[in-house]
Predict the structure.
Amino acid sequence: MPLLGSAEAAVVTRSDASPLGVSSAVPTLTFPARVGAWIGALVELRGVAAEVPTASVALDETADGRLATVIWPDGVRTASRLFSSDPAMAADR
Amino acid sequence: MREQPRRHVATSASVLTDRASWTGYADRLLAGARAYASPNHARITPSGAEGGYGNAVDGLEGFARTFLLAGFRLMGERGEGLGDLADFYAEGIRAGVDPAAPDRWVRLDEHPQAKVEAASLALILDQTRPWIWDRLDALTRQRVIDYFAPVVGDTSYPRNNWLWFRIVVQTFLRSVGGPWSPDDIAADLALHDSFVRADGWLADGDERAYDHYVGWALHLYPVLWSRMGAAELAAGRTEGDVAALDRFLQDAVELVGADGSPLLQGRSLIYRFAAAAPFWVGAFAEVPSVPLGLLRHAAGAIVGHFADHGVPGDDGLLSLGWHGPWRPLAQSYSGPASPYWASKGLLGVALPADHPVWAAPEVPLPVAQREVLRAIAAPGWLVSGTPGDGIVRVVNHGTDHAMPGAAPGDSPLYTQLGYSTATSPLLDEEAWTTPLEQTVALVTADGRASHRAGMELLGVRVDEAPDAAGASVGVAGSLARTHLLEPGPIGRRHGSGLDGVATPLGTLEVHSLVRGPWEVRLARLASLEPGVEASELQLRVGGWAVSAGQTDRDGDAAQGAPHAPVVASSPPPSCRCSAAPRRPS
């Protein structure tokens, strides 16, 4: 069972769409749209060789606020509280 | 998406350090442009397709924007040894304001672009007074005053950085006994102050327009203006302007890639190394928090980045493009001399050889030394820089060149979730109608993607590591009433997304957790508009747009000139966008 949704991966290419090169490629993930469901993705931009990254995220909405626990590709584990989606409640903006 | 690992360690080989390398580069640009001067020197019109405002405006731009650079050279040498340069431009001024001259300048009451160029003319006439203005004949001086005079009381200036064009010109007029209006200047300063945001940032207008104009215009002019004998007009505000600049530069210096590349974000990227200007302004103002050696290095890295990539071209000219020519990067009205606003990035040559900036010990860019993780409140950005590859990334939840709650199209230059020093947003026509890279978008069955402009910034912060063994994480989020857009007629583009008829689809919240090269992106479709069915939609996450087969565009594509490799030894970065793996059940 996917952690934060199941998705189809694709790469979209464009020609002459960037000042940096004649061909551009954009990786995409396409999820079903479901109201109230969370989806998650790891997005990476790096310039040095590395293994294909793996990561995981767990979202606890029962805590005070929404706590996202991430195990990053380098194995580090962090826990971060997401901002409230009620703009009036969002702190530290 | 998996790509063969490639190496893209971003370092600049050509950081300009000693003053001679800077003046040499400036003189090369001046010489390249000078070859395209009209017989009386009043217009400089480099080769290339005519701009959207016509040939006469192109020629005025060429004069005014290279006059900036010529003026910086004269200032830095205190006029010594540059008599030919001063004479060349003085002759151009005489013809420019001569109504009978065939190459006279387009007047301010003939075309609004002349208001932009007038500021450069006035600034340099002021700062080079002993070597040009004082040597002009009385008739020419009066004609210059008459040329600038329509600025007084002109209320048609756009509500953005143009306010400084009116201030600078009127301040010069005041200094030479011309007409000016203290009310105009007071109103413009008040407008500037209305653009002030947290931590030394300013918006370039009423919208959430955060881009390079913050540095190369909204911080540049207050400091240079303070040198125009405007102490009375400034009424003690300069100290505050410098304090804001000082704070801004602490963020700005972390936005430069280790290879010197500025962020590819925001409009007017054809001005290229104008992005170096705020660092020189910091040196002028002698800001307290960023060392002179870092300011000089940052500016040198930026100009060096473009020099490394063949700028200017073999013809000595700045083309409409980034590294090489690429016309879509320019606005429709841009002409062949428009890129010469880049001159601002060479402001440092106005600092004389005995200025301490030239002797200050070199200080490397932050991203060359350590991981960078920073939250910038005003634009709603998380900044992440990695020393291993020198790339600086920005995750964006607060900038869209729109007003909160509005529903224009997404501008690819402003509204995407991410920008970096190693990638460019897609900028073809489709990019303005169908957001793709660095988005979370609802996609209809027929392939239309939703826009998020007008989104609400929920917040941006860095959770610092609790201890040495922990890790800091950037956290940001935004809430968008996503909408489809049926674009209206496309007019002139000034950075904003397209106008048109918006059809709301639903409310989407997006959150980013950022560390190093990674972003964990979380999204939730909070609700759908009445009548919109989830079954008819998909939710698409787009990653970074990576350019393959990077080339320098060694000729204007429109002219069909050939392209040639320029970064063969520095291939593009890799980008992956993968679903989070399954949690063990």
